Amino acid sequence: MERALVAEDVRREYGDRVALDGVSLSVDAGEVFALVGPNGAGKTTLVRALTGTTDIDGEVSVFGESPATVAKSRLGVLPQEFTPPERLSARELVAYYAGLYDDPRDVENVLADVGLADTADTHYENLSGGQRRRTCVGATLVNDPDLLVLDEPTTGIDPAGRRDLRRLLADLADGGTTVLLTTHDMTEAERLADRVGLLADGRLAAVDSPAALVAEHGGENRIVVDLVTEPSEDVAATSGATAPSPAAAADALDETGHRVELRDTELVIHGIAAEEIGSVVDDLEDTGIAYDGLEWRQPDLEDVYLAVTGQAVTGGGEPIAESTDTDSDDTEAETPAKPSASEGETEVAQ
Ligand SMILES: Nc1ncnc2c1ncn2[C@@H]1O[C@H](COP(=O)(O)OP(=O)(O)OP(=O)(O)O)[C@@H](O)[C@H]1O
């Protein structure tokens, strides 16, 4: 199997901040690989390292070559920040990028792929956030790349559009395109990716298929009970239930033989199979615990991320510090693509 991407011991520091702390990774051709992690985990820095748009220590290769020398026609890269000229329509933008290649895809087909066939004549500045992002994804597809690198491609796209985009990426992968994307959205990663890399504080904490990660680190099925913490006349009147303190509620349920964990005002009851939900509800009533609601949850990638890194991926992570780094490569990476006269190719995102 050809390796599309290989990173070995990649490090990137900004002043005394370590953005990538020895990341090694390989992605096979035809794979869909999702890098997940909260804000500041290092996703964008890793994307830039892999696409040769930031200086690093360590080694990176793309289809066996340095990112600097690999044929640009093999790559489609969508950066997190990408702002094409606003006075062009979606069709004109996609056509513009297509015009930079010797053998581009049909513009109308690309527009249809990203769900913009009906809005293709609208100026970019008048498109919604999601439509803009789809236009940008379309611009990465014009050269029918072998490797697509997409930094948060679904940002701003509504659920239906996300579903369509997931389908498109799955179809492209079926056709042999390698896809590396970043996302905060664990559900998206779980649905889309063959393998997921959990990035935390510049390190890859775990890499595997979503199913394998959940099986190994996700824990058990559980019921989460949202406790009533204030005395409620309604609850007392209808069920006779009182509102014991969360700690007392946990103790009471513990005595019924359940494995109970108290998390703030939630009780987590571990190891509950679907057919046991009814008996847990009975036990809650018998012990007089008042609750606003309860939810049965199966483990997912969010649980895995928490178990492996000790951080919640949805918590937003650390705030991104203001840049103190003035490297010119970093400035360039945010700049919209310019045609490359010598090669007749575009770097949509580099
Ligand atoms: N140009 C820069 N100058 C200084 N620090 C930077 C720069 N770019 C990134 N960093 C820092 O490197 C770390 C990783 O940032 P990065 O943008 O790679 O994270 P991310 O996972 O992509 O976050 P987000 O989800 O918010 O896009 C952060 O601590 C960030 O503050």
From TrEMBL:
SMART domains: AAA (SM00382). It holds the Pfam family ABC_tran. One of its GO terms (molecular function) is ATP hydrolysis activity. Residues 5-226 form the ABC transporter domain. Keywords: ATP-binding, Nucleotide-binding, Transport. This is ABC transporter ATP-binding protein. Residues 324-333 have a biased composition (Acidic residues). Belongs to the ABC transporter superfamily. Transmembrane segments: none annotated. Residues 312-350 are annotated as: Disordered. Gene3D superfamilies: P-loop containing nucleotide triphosphate hydrolases (3.40.50.300).
